[in-house]
Amino acid sequence: MTYEIREPVLHSTPIADLRPTQMTVGMREVSEKRQAWRQHDATKRLEFLRAHMIPTILGPGREHFVIDHHHLARALYDEGQKEVFVTVIIDLSKLDEGAFWTVLDFRAWAHPYDARGRRREFADLPKSIKGLKDDPFRSLAGELRRVGGYAKDTTPFSEFLWADFLRRRIKPKAVEKDFSTALEKALEFAKSPEAEYLPGWCGPHQR
pTM score, two decimals? Predict the structure, then answer.
């Protein structure tokens, strides 16, 4: 995700006060981030938080709406971390709620799609980080990128586009029952011409 940081100042903010702009995360990825967090001592944790600030937008009521690093925020919340550092990308607190969500939608700063890939109303977005639901296909898409199935791309919510692509080709029970086998199938689909339209596609090009 790309954006221009207009206020590069760190603000210590309670995680419980952060408002998500998406509905789901991949809980496998959250679990991995939780395990990595446990490896840090107190000093390293502070350094980590300062180096991994959460980008937010100030919205109505001057609430912080998270526009990236939802997985990290959820991992830290689940680990009992009370506060994180955020950096405000833009202040839209003067907008009314309708105009606010219109701007976020237009700028691709929000992704109101549920764990079945269905678009929902902005009012259905969770009100806190703890309300984020698991989407196994988001976990599959994230792992697919890590093993070279596709390249990292600046397209907003690119992993969710890949998740939706895989959701249409692999059964949910297959992902839940045998993640490794599902990943092998995902790799095959990722290299096929069917995926050519997706961001970061790196399959063989026809001459």
Answer: 0.90
